[in-house]
């Protein structure tokens, strides 16, 4: 026999409380997910007349915490879990056949399957556990991976292993001593940043991402102050968290300097791929940029934002146009043979400026001539360094025998 206890929407910080309560009813406790525990009732008949009384005692303890819960006593770990998602209260199943029959009618629940697998099943119209188990385990592994295949096999076949006693991981927390006591926000943020980095490193090792940060400030000769800061989404990045902490600290008035800072992380389980994505999120938010671009174009017209577009023309002033910018793209930096030197940027003037003959001109860099069927243009381009150290890009118009400045080098 086995019992499954579920407490939907249990906050992460309350998982330890749940396990402490359930350990009073069985020493063999296993928690496969937040808010879910399996218990082994073996050997408890000396304390309870039957399993119904035992299950009702568990349910009563959870109701005392004002938790909405379910207690299902049966024979199969994952089937009792599935039944508990659909039947709140106490359910005691008499035999394995009745359990299997009852589980077949249960609708799939996102808590019993990986979230993305549950979404795929909904798209395919697979709504009940019976529909899910009718699929081939091999096909599940092939299409959705080993994790989904293992869950399918566990639901379909009998349990082979007994409950593995396992306590859930304690919430990640860090204590920081402030010596001497201080109330300067920038200095406190420097300490908090180091603590948040330690928390995120620990969460990353557990494949968790931070969703909220509890900040407890122990003050010098004043009552402690506790603040809870929620992130917009699960994150593994330090900067967004510190920005939120900074805003909160600037908005509160401390009654005394801070002696100690205790950080407690609230987190959710994520996949390793999500961890790498959350940790390496690009600094540029292209989604926000697209929205801003659309707003500017809506206010000023579709040609309000432009970008240079190269053309195949000889004359520099005709070698590009400014085209409307309809989307944002990641910048591309071409490879250069001399990576140790910074690239030179030529700023092109809107119109060439006529000058007298330059005092010093380097060797000619290029000669440009247009085709005969166009207006004939013949130019010799040079780089010229002025006495002030500026580098100009000049050309000699051989047709008009005149010098012009066409731009500068930055």
Give a description of the structure:
Helix content is 32%, strand content 29%. With 410 residues, the protein is of the alpha+beta class. The chain has three domains: 2-156, Alpha-Beta Plaits (2-Layer Sandwich), CATH 3.30.70.270; 173-279, Dna Ligase, domain 1, CATH 3.30.1490.100; 346-409. Helix 7 (137-144) packs antiparallel against helix 8 and helix 9 (185-205) runs antiparallel to helix 10.
Write the layout of secondary structure elements.
Blueprint: E1 2-6, H1 15-22, E2 29-33, E3 36-39, H2 51-63, E4 70-74, H3 77-86, E5 89-92, H4 96-104, H5 115-123, H6 129-133, H7 137-144, H8 146-156, E6 173-182, H9 185-205, E7 208-219, E8 222-235, H10 238-251, E9 258-269, H11 272-279, H12 286-300, E10 306-310, E11 320-324, E12 346-355, E13 366-369, E14 378-385, E15 391-397, E16 402-409
Parallel strand pairs: 4-5
Antiparallel strand pairs: 1-3, 1-4, 2-3, 6-9, 7-8, 7-9, 10-11, 12-16, 13-14, 14-15, 15-16
Helix pairs in contact: 3-4, 7-8, 9-10
């Amino acid at each position: 026999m086995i019992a499954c206890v579920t407490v939907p929407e249990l906050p992460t910080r309350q998982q330890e409380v749940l396990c402490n309560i359930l350990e009073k009813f069985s020493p063999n406790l296993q928690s496969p997910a937040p808010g879910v525990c399996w218990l082994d009732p073996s050997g408890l008949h000396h304390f309870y007349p039957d399993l119904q009384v035992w299950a009702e005692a568990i349910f009563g303890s959870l109701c005392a915490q004002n938790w909405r819960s379910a207690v299902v006593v049966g024979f199969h770990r994952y089937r009792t879990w599935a039944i508990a998602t659909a039947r709140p209260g106490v359910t005691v199943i008499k035999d394995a056949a009745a359990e299997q029959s009852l589980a077949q009618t249960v609708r799939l629940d996102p808590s019993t399957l990986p979230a993305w697998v549950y979404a795929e099943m909904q798209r395919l119209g697979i709504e009940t556990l019976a529909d899910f188990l009718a699929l081939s385990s091999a096909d599940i592994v092939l299409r959705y991976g080993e994790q989904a295949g293992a869950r399918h096999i566990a639901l379909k076949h009998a349990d082979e292993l007994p409950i593995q006693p396992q306590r859930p991981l304690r919430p990640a927390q860090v204590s920081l001593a402030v010596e001497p006591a201080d109330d300067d926000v920038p200095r406190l943020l420097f300490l908090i940043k180091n603590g948040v980095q330690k928390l995120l490193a620990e969460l990353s090792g557990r494949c968790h991402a931070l969703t909220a940060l509890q900040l407890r400030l122990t003050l010098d000769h004043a009552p402690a102050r506790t603040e809870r800061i929620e992130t917009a989404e699960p994150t593994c990045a330090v900067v967004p968290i510190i920005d939120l902490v900074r805003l909160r600290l600037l908005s509160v008035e401390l009654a005394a300097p801070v002696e100690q800072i205790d950080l407690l992380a609230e987190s959710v389980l994520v996949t390793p791929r999500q961890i790498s994505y959350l940790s390496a999120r690009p600094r540029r938010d292209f989604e926000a940029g697209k929205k801003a671009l659309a707003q500017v174009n809506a206010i000023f017209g579709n040609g309000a934002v432009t970008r240079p577009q190269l053309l195949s023309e000889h004359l520099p002033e005709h070698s590009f146009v400014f085209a409307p910018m309809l989307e944002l793209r990641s910048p591309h930096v071409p490879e250069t043979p001399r990576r140790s030197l910074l690239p030179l940027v030529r700023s092109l003037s809107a119109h060439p400026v006529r000058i007298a003959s330059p005092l010093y001109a380097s060797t000619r860099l290029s000669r440009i001539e247009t085709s005969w069927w166009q207006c004939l243009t013949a130019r010799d381009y040079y780089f010229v360094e002025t006495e002030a150290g500026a580098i100009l890009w000049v050309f000699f118009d051989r047709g008009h025998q005149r010098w012009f400045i066409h731009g500068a080098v930055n």
